[in-house]
Structure formats: structure tokens, C-alpha cells
Recover the amino acids of this structure.
């Protein structure tokens, strides 16, 4: 059942602290200052600097963008491809290449076809999936489970958070880069997420902007994929126009769309990005757009933004997991107010088994 929630989507949003705890269980040891992913132990023997290519669709693609960034930060040459375009892009694949398919269901046809292409070309294949025994799990040389539990709502929510956490673990497993700081931050994340759920004012903000023409989402660094994800969720369940951009791209075109009727959700977390984001906020405010800052620096941002959705500081990478939860809640409450079919949006299926 929906445990008292009106929709599975809301139930699943609230299940995120538990989903993350399950993903971490027995993989993170504070005592030994280590992260181990049992399922990937034999991947450790692979050539570390062989390129890593992520293939995925939709929300899983956004998680893959996050994962590729994590690996690049550790010096690994990691790229990200939309699974539906992977074969057509003539990406060079050789025996040292590791191809990672990120797929909640493990059944997405585009992702399966990219993984088959990779297998045929001699790459080592890995899937990061939620479903035990799924097609992707059977196709790939290695399987890492995200352990989010079943997700019924068509909109992916808890599985995205679990993918972000799983890819953090995968990065440590592949690079041996588990720092005590990362371990501590992972351990605290479920409680911080619970705090976001308990204290969020996303519902009030949703009410304020339910009549908007368009919604824009901007973020930089690890928040850039979250901006894309925020927009996808908004489109999917509200049927309203929404777009996500890396903050720096605004002035290269999208700014022309910004008006008083297009609220901008600006993710500003971590010192480096807060400063640059303030520039982006000025750009959109000058065009009359209302700004909602999603931030771990509420004191600073409340001077610039119309509203603030606060998130705790979870470090330079994981704070984006929390920022995303605020956006999930905004989309949910907008869709709820509009009376949409939230768990089964029109035209969409939970797993897309045609190419
Ligand atoms: O099962 P998968 O993760 O492979 O699914 C990929 C996409 O179809 C999926 O993430 C889709 O974008 C979601 N409905 C978004 O909420």
C-alpha cells in the first residue's frame, strides 16, 4: 500500500532515508575506513585508467552524469552517453573500456541495446540496477544493486537518490579512494535527508507558483545533473513546460525565455558555486523572474532570492542529493494541486521496453 500517502510517489520520496541506508549496509566501514562493494570486487583488477563510459536514459542518465563527474574527479577518464544514441555515436570501444549501464528497472530497451553493443565490442560491462535478475543484470559481466526497494510510481525518486549513493560507492571501489570524510558524510546523509523531509517548505512554494507558464532549474557542478532532473520530474508529472540548465549556459540562449511567469529554481550549494550562482540569479532577476534558491547558505541567499529552500551541508558532492529532494517535493505538490495522475502520468510507462 501507500502507507497513508495519497500517492506512491510521495511514499517513495519519504522512503529515501531508508533506501540510502539499505544501499550503504555492509558496504561502508568506519572502523576500517573502507568502502567495499562485494559485487564489484573482481572489477578492481581491471585497468584503472581504461575509459569508463556510462550509458543510461532519463533519470538514470542524470545519475550517470553525476557518477561520471565523481570518477573524473578521481582522475578516471569517464564519459556519459544517452543509451539511445550510443551505437549511433560511433564511440570507440576496446578491451580496456568499462561500460556502465545505469538502469533502475534493468529492462530499458535503449540501455539494453547499448550494453549489448558494448559486450559485442569486447568492453567489460557493469550494470547499476535496482532489480535482481533483470535483463541488464543478466547481460552484464558485473552487477551492483542499489537496493532501493520496489518503486511503483512512474516518476523515479528514491531510485535516483540510491543511484547517486551507489555511484559514490562504485567510485570508491574502482579507485580505492574512500576517505574518512566521504564515509562520515555517507553515514550522516539519511538523517540529513530526513531533516529535509521534515522541514521542507516546498509545498508552500509549489502553491505560490502553481500557475506559472514555465519552470527553470539551474545548477553548477554536481548540481548541474540535478537541474536536469528537477526539470524532467516537473514535466513528467505536471505536464508543464520545464527546462534545466547548467548555470553558465543561461546567457547563451535560454535567458531569452525567462519572464515574470517563469520561476527559476537555483541550486546554490558549496562555497565555490554559491558565488557564481549569485551572478546567474542576478541575470534572471533582472528579467523579472521569481527566484527560489535551494541552498545550504540560507543567510546569504535570502538576500538575493524570493524564497529559500534550505538543505543541510552534506559536502561538495552529496549536498546535491538533498537539493534534488526539495525539487521532487516542489514538483509533487504542483502536480497534486493540478490534480494530475501522479503515479501514472499520461503517455508514460514505468519501464520503456521499446527502442
Ligand atoms: O529503468 P530505467 O532507469 O532504465 O529507466 C530510464 C527512464 O525511462 C526513467 O528514468 C524515466 O526517465 C523516469 N520515468 C523518470 O522519472
Amino acid at each position: 500500500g501507500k502507507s497513508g500517502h495519497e500517492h506512491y510517489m510521495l511514499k517513495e520520496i519519504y522512503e529515501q532515508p531508508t533506501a540510502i541506508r539499505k544501499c550503504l549496509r555492509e558496504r561502508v566501514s568506519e572502523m576500517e575506513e573502507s568502502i567495499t562493494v562485494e559485487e564489484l570486487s573482481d572489477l578492481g583488477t581491471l585497468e584503472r585508467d581504461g575509459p569508463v563510459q556510462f550509458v543510461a536514459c532519463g533519470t538514470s542518465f542524470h545519475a550517470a552524469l553525476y557518477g561520471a563527474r565523481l570518477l573524473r574527479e578521481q582522475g578516471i577518464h569517464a564519459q556519459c552517453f544517452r543509451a539511445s544514441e550510443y551505437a549511433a555515436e560511433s564511440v570507440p570501444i576496446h578491451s580496456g573500456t568499462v561500460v556502465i549501464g545505469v538502469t533502475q528497472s534493468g529492462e530499458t530497451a535503449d540501455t539494453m541495446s547499448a550494453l549489448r553493443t558494448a559486450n559485442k565490442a569486447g568492453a567489460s560491462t557493469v550494470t547499476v540496477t535496482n532489480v535482481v535478475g533483470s535483463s541488464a543484470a543478466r547481460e552484464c559481466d558485473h552487477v551492483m544493486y542499489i537496493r532501493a526497494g520496489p518503486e511503483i510510481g512512474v516518476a523515479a525518486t528514491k531510485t535516483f537518490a540510491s543511484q547517486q549513493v551507489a555511484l559514490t560507492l562504485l567510485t570508491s571501489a574502482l579507485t580505492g579512494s574512500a576517505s574518512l570524510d566521504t564515509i562520515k558524510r555517507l553515514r550522516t546523509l539519511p538523517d540529513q535527508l530526513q531533516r529535509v523531509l521534515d522541514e521542507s517548505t516546498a509545498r508552500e512554494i509549489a502553491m505560490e507558483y502553481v500557475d506559472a507558464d514555465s519552470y527553470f532549474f539551474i545548477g553548477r557542478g554536481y548540481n548541474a545533473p540535478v537541474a536536469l532532473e528537477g526539470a524532467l520530474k516537473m514535466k513528467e508529472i505536471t505536464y508543464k513546460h520545464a527546462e534545466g540548465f547548467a548555470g553558465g549556459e543561461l546567457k547563451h540562449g535560454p535567458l531569452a525565455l525567462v519572464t515574470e511567469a517563469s520561476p527559476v529554481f537555483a541550486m546554490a550549494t558549496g562555497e565555490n558555486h554559491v558565488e557564481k550562482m549569485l551572478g546567474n540569479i542576478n541575470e534572471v532577476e533582472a528579467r523579472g523572474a521569481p527566484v527560489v534558491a535551494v541552498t545550504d547558505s540560507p543567510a546569504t541567499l535570502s538576500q538575493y532570492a524570493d524564497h529559500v529552500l534550505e538543505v543541510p551541508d552534506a559536502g561538495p558532492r552529496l549536498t546535491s542529493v538533498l537539493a534534488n529532494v526539495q525539487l521532487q517535493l516542489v514538483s509533487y505538490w504542483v502536480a497534486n494541486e493540478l490534480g494530475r495522475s501522479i503515479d501514472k502520468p499520461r503517455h508514460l510507462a514505468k519501464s520503456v521496453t521499446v527502442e
Notes: Residues 315-337 form the longest helix (23 residues). The longest strand covers residues 98-103. The pocket of 5-amino-5-deoxy-1-O-phosphono-D-mannitol is lined by residues 57-60, 103-105, 108, 111, 154-156, 232, 236, 351-352 (CB under 6 Å). The chain has 13 helices and twelve strands.
